[in-house]
Design goal:
Layout: H1 2-6, H2 18-48, H3 53-68, H4 71-77, H5 83-102, H6 106-122, H7 130-140, H8 145-174, H9 188-195, H10 209-231, H11 241-261, H12 274-294, H13 298-301, H14 304-318
Helix pairs in contact: 2-3, 2-4, 2-5, 2-12, 3-12, 3-14, 5-6, 6-8, 7-11, 10-12, 11-12
Length: 325
């Protein structure tokens, strides 16, 4: 998917330098992803959590300021890899899941399947979302178990149909002798070898790999992780039941991401932590919203939170090597 969009970049970005076009595209993808995530969080807080619109708007502002300046997110906005689009597609899946949960119709299921298919066609690490998505899908479905299973299979079929379109394009493009042909998927054997990631099998596991990568995860995000533990914990355990299931799913996503990513012994592992950081950012937003209302400070100190978030955002950028890009 990322490859397909990049080949159309000159239609919308008027600059003759390819690298500039790709950087602009990455920045737009990241901006769109963070914004769509913030809209989804706002919708969850109001419709599922029962928070006031004012509280949700404050929490949304905090989310944008902090998440958009996380080093691992900022790096995608200033780079040309597929992960900027990955952020946008994760946000798209979450948004479509929320819409589906509000009204389980054929249209909402089709869009959810399309979102999943697009995301898998961009990067296989979308698999990290599956455990949390399954929890939400079965917990939020208003149908019988058998009907839920049947509808779920329909969503999967739609996702595979979308995925098949881009997989077919990958084979076609590979046979056109492009300058860069990652994996060289020109036939069935090389194609399956590529999409199943068999070339990366030597990088999975090994002595001390998990500890090394987990230490890196904490190193690149420790200010944010401390923030989560300090502020978000004020409200997470008092959330409404409707929002609590989302909290559980986000925790599952975080744990799943860390288990998979920390067993992957590659140099540029930071991008594989994206789901964990984005899930923690949403949890942080939930906690902020609950803390605002339970402490009764919304009228007096409500806008102190965005101000504090702005300071945190500046600090994150200042201490990030990625900001130099």
């Amino acid at each position: 998917l990322h490859l397909s969009i990049r080949r159309q970049r000159q239609m919308c970005i008027r600059d003759s330098r390819t690298i500039v076009q790709l950087h602009v595209l990455g920045a737009l993808f990241t901006l769109g992803g963070v914004y769509l995530l913030s809209v989804s969080v706002n919708r969850l807080l109001v419709l599922k959590g029962g928070f006031s619109i004012q509280t949700a708007n404050i929490a949304q502002t905090v989310f944008c300021l902090v998440t958009g300046t996380l080093p691992v997110v900022w790096k995608q906005a200033t780079g040309i890899e597929v992960y900027s689009l990955h952020i946008l597609l994760i946000a798209f899946i979450l948004y479509r899941l929320i819409v589906w949960s509000e009204g389980n119709s054929l249209q909402t299921r089709i869009w959810l399947g399309i979102a999943l298919g697009l995301s898998f066609s961009n990067h296989a690490s979308t698999i990290m979302l599956v455990p949390g998505l399954l929890v939400l899908y079965f917990a939020l479905s208003n149908k019988s178990f058998s009907e839920t299973i049947k509808q779920g299979l329909g969503i999967v079929l739609i996702a595979f149909a979308v995925l098949g379109v881009f997989w077919a394009y990958l084979i076609i493009r590979a046979n056109q002798n492009p300058l860069i042909n990652w994996g060289n998927p020109v036939d069935y054997q090389s194609f399956t070898y590529h999409i199943l990631g068999k070339q990366y099998s030597n990088f999975i596991g090994g002595k001390g790999v998990f500890a090394k990568q987990f230490a890196l995860f904490f190193k690149i995000g420790w200010p944010f992780i401390v923030l989560i533990g300090g502020i978000a914990s004020l409200g997470l355990f008092k959330l409404s039941t409707k929002l609590r299931i989302w909290t559980i799913a986000l925790i599952i996503n975080t744990v799943t991401c860390l288990i998979i990513a920390c067993n992957y012994n590659i140099h540029d592992i930071e991008s594989y932590f994206l789901l964990a950081f984005l899930s923690l950012a949403i949890l942080f937003c939930f906690g902020i919203a609950q803390a605002i209302e339970q402490e009764g400070v919304i009228k007096k100190l409500g806008y102190l939170y965005p101000s504090a978030a702005a300071v945190i955002a500046i600090c994150l950028l200042y201490t990030s090597d990625a900001a130099d890009e």
